[in-house]
Amino acid sequence: MKHVISALVENQPGVLARIVGLISGRGFNIESLNVAPTQDAGLSRMTMTVPGDDRVLEQVMKQLNKLVDVVKVTDLTQRRYLNRELALIEVAAPAKSRAEIVGLADLFEAKVVSVQSGSLTIQMVGEKEKVNDLIEMLKPFKVLDVSRSGVIAVARGEQVKP
Amino acid sequence: MKTGAQCIIDGLKRQGVKTIFGLPGGSVLDIFSELYHSSLEFVLVRHEQGAAHMADGYARATGKVGCCLVTSGPGATNTVTGLATAAMDGIPMVCISGQVPSSMIGNDAFQEADTTGITRAVTKHNYLVRNVDDLPRTIAEAFYVARSGKPGPVLIDVPKDVQRASTDKTTPKELSFRGYRPAFEGNSKQIARLAEAINKAARPLLYVGGGVIAGDASRELTALARKARIPVTTTLMGLGAFPETDPLSLRMLGMHGSVAANRAVSECDLLISVGARFDDRVTGKISEFATAAKKAHIDIDPSSIDKSVTVDIPVVGHAKPVLQKLLPLVDKGGHREWLASVNAWMKEFPFSYDTKSSQLLPQYVIEQVYELTRGKAIITTEVGQHQMWAAHFFKYTKPRTFLSSGGLGTMGYGLPAAIGAQFGKRDALVVDIGGDGSTQMNFQELVVAVEHDLPIKVVILNNGHLGMVRQWQEMFYKGEYSASVLKTTGRNRVENIPDRKPGQYLPDFVKLAEAHGAVGMRVTRQSEVKSALKKAFSTPRPVVLDCVVSENANVYPMVPPGASLIEMVHSMA
Prior knowledge:
Chain A is α+β, with helices and mostly antiparallel strands. Chain A has 4 helices and 9 strands. In chain A, strands 5, 6, 7, 8 and 9 form a 5-stranded antiparallel beta sheet that branches. Chain B is α/β, with parallel strands linked by helices. Chain B has 3 domains: about 1-165, 3-Layer(aba) Sandwich (Rossmann fold), CATH 3.40.50; about 190-350, Rossmann fold (3-Layer(aba) Sandwich); about 360-550, Thiamin diphosphate (ThDP)-binding fold, Pyr/PP domains (Rossmann fold), CATH 3.40.50. In chain B, about 35% of the residues lie in helices and about 15% in strands. Chain B is globular and about 70 Å long. The mean pLDDT of chain B is about 95. The interface of A and B includes residues 59, 62, 65 and 70 of A.
């Protein structure tokens, strides 16, 4: 089971290293990780996708909570939440297949953000699974490069107070 | 306006620091210059690892926050083992390290190390102070973090320019943390559930760890055990939390625990853990640990609950308030049958050794230390066989009298810890029990004891081996003593060391002690031990007593690694 963990942390130098160090040092895995400031300049939100059973997750959350710089940790998978991921995908697109690729992007409500001779760059925003699906669909055309933001997520309709 | 260096000295005084252990260097000269004019007592060590262990020993003996001060680069990296030792055992410490000037950080400057990066995993928290305005608050925060919740070491890294810069900021009246709120009281409903479980239990057992000592809850624990008539076993870290002379004491449990304690764990119907963390050296094979019991766990650290053993009644809180709330809710206990069985096991299987041996046995030496001090001493240990014997053959009746590296198992801890403890407890008799291997690891610190007239006693159980390694090799590695021999004879071929004079032990600890300015003595026979110890204890100077003991003594009973607690090995035979 994959869990999406959201952590509000003090916006201090070294916090990212502290959290990543804790997770790797205790033998947990992170599948994706995203860090950015919040509306409060003093706080950053980290969104992590962590594979593992409930027991592993409980330890990850408890260990994170122990860190002095960590203000709040939530396992969003236990709640109503929204998750999104942004992907930039460059796909080979000779003139003959261009229309088909654009059509595919349209189906996913993805956008062509750059056109090169021989390739297109597609911007996709959506749930992680949808992003996975689009990349799968594009594979036959030869995916040249992918950059993904990692999942970001928020709880729905409950204000997460710092 | 004050300089950063002044803020540090003032901050330490404000926190009640009296004694600082450390060693100067280029990046901390401003602080040392300030220290020169202050009322603080500074203890100049000979290696920074010693400073960290002294601060740790001071903290364990007194309950106060230990403090050390070191320079950048190697000064800071030398404290890493000491910080890790304190972190594993939850010991409150603040370590201040100098750092190269801010503008040089990241440039591979002389004596630069990424100290906060290196120490992140071995501290409870650490700080790199980039602005002198943050310094007064950071020092106050560091001490609060070190001593609150589950205590631990905190490091403050201060670049040289920050020490020299000036600020008008002062220590804030109140500290505010958005993310650090250690739980204190314990949930009343959970405590009531626990009380109910205790009142229903036929075969309850208290399993007590260092948290009871750190949380100053030894009196409450003793009251609970005596009121509800619950036998008590402690971890190595918990020695002294409950008087081992009490008929309810089953002594230590775990890998080298007593038969009675380990059987009691396996047969109890309610296991109440207080301030212990179900460490692998305690539980043995986890799937067979206390299978018959409902388990309760009182701990200040939420992450230690359900970490290795799933518990039925968790209580997150400090041991003292939790036990205070619990005490009136429990019935006066009988548990006659249960107590009769555990007492019978205690009688049948006491910690023992071959008292008829003609050789000088290490256990005998410790037994004599116990008898001659009448148990009134602070014992520190190094790590290995002697550490286990010090747990077996000395009975601890008071908290903060057994100081030992439990979690990390740091050889070289005991001697500097004894010095730190003696600084904190000037009137106590402080005895470091060591082996010949580990005592050498920080022997250089003996000069500190000599300089400061600290009458610590170092009792070396010299068996010419890394004894615990030798024991494991004997038991589990076909008796192939790979690199565990310290004598000059019988070394393994791979070491390429020719046999010298038979029986020669290196170093000569008597001469070594004398070279450091201490008193050196040696015993080789049982008949000499008592008088040598008497002499050592009545000498008002540091004494090293080299006890040349049997090479083959092993620590029993023993639960082989990976086995369950009931599969104890009592002897090689």
